[in-house]
């Protein structure tokens, strides 16, 4: 049963991809969706057996690599962490498959798309179920490759090509760091098995643990799109909307979070690594929120929201609250998939328009889509008693309850981010659904709700976004809950849940919710109640641009340009790299390598032969000159050392280094004389 959880999506992918012509479009949809539905049932059973009943499963399929110390097996490990994240991955993936049946019904390459989707799900399950770092790395690389294929699905579009290459290359950088981390683990511990590594870590040097933790963090930052390796995620919006939902909700971006959760026994013994993770996570949350504040593309706004929430997850990991980080990851998967699929329904119904400034008034045309997107938005805002509330607010409480610099830094930035998130989320709702219509009339005439294949996944995800957090909160993050047992490890010194739960001032707990409501109401007021006043204030309308507000334009440009990260990367890294590559290609490859390679050696020998042949002039006076020069050179080599021997004692006393060099020079010349004499003796003997 447990192997079927991994193999069924892979089977669906293979059938749809390689036998697509045989089974047809309808057959491809039926096979892949059926495989995912069966996998959902199996993961639910596994969740009960492994998670609720505490019966951990380990599967050994045999040896993979046997080389002296390196003993690596094909093994899979199902514990509470695996089934908890697997539940979100499989449920979201199944619903996205069903949603895609209608969403891409007019696309001519359905078999290829469904094959990629199922392969992506299989790769993610391979990753989270791997029993050692190597098996996990196979799944890690698989989702990297398939993400490239999915982002580049419309491969005839230049922007899709560029986005896919950016995502792939930036993830390559993170994978390189993570690979070095794996090599470091093996060189220090001689094993890559989870249980063996985690049991040996407490006896290692803290500096070594810190280095390993930071190398693993490098891989996690790239996959989970945290600063400074985040630039690829907004660009991946070039893919179809189901891909965005799958990549950014439950699969690709959660891989880095899973890696750090799995390596919690390593991170807990490095306070430096935890501090860095906390600062990076909270900075990422704030950065992405401010950058998403001024985006106008519907999917990019939600993408920056994803980066911001990933920052919250990273922040929780840095605070050693791994169970809270996991719960927020699972909760986020449901309401972010809902938001993306809702956005896809809007785009699909509204003539494929994605600019929120060209929408408006859609609440009367798409009431169900409005309801589900509002549900997802409220859950994202951590509205009390919705799914997001049980993890997002708890992360901020735990940050304050840490009573440290990093905890206070995380709390302040996280609280401000909560307000900004509420603002841009309701800015999206207002501009798309509430405010006055901004699109051509024929767009509205052709706008209608989607059919059942689209509505059903949205309805189910809405229910998860409302109730899931309430149902599992006591299991995952309840005080005294032992649900995760040994799958997550928190050092006793880092247990702060009791302080956060019982010793904080109620105002500290309520502040993020208060700021979120202020942000939401401000957005509704500015974009729906008084939109013209807002337009005139910022000089976008007929009113004159106020002189005292000149400073707003550079701030707007700074945030809208995403802190100029792309500009900096292009100028300092990409352009310099291309110039370096050009120099290597022209000067080293075509210069040095050709010079000392077969072509260069043949040319040099040929030219040397021609030059030596030029000495054979046939004129006797020239030969006499050669003989005289040779005789003088030979006399110089023979008698100069004898003259220097008389001067050597004086030099030796004054400068010993010069004396040593002179001795070596004398020996070299005597060696040359010896070789010349040997040559002449052999030459005369042969004659």
Compose a concise summary of this entry.
With 687 residues, the protein is an all-alpha fold.
* Order of strands in the sheet with most strands: 1-2
H/E element order: HHEEHHHHHHHHHHHHHHHHHHHHHHHHHH
End-to-end gap: 90 Å
**Low-pLDDT sequence parts:** 538-545, 683-687
Count of DSSP helices? Answer: 28
Helix content: over 70%
Question: Would you report the number of β strands?
Answer: 2
What shape does the CA trace take? elongated
InterPro entries: NADH_DH_su5_C, NADHpl_OxRdtase_5_subgr, ND/Mrp_TM, NU5C-like, Proton_antipo_N
Membrane topology: Multi-pass membrane protein
Protein name: NADH-ubiquinone oxidoreductase chain 5
GO biological process, one term: ATP synthesis coupled electron transport
Question: Could you characterize what this model shows?
Answer:
The protein has 687 residues and is mainly alpha-helical. Among the domains are: 256 residues, no CATH class; 31 residues, no CATH class; 68 residues, no CATH class. The chain has a two-stranded antiparallel ribbon. A hairpin with a 2-residue loop joins β1 and β2. α2 runs antiparallel to α3 and α14 runs antiparallel to α15. The protein starts with a helix and ends with a helix. The C terminus is likely disordered.
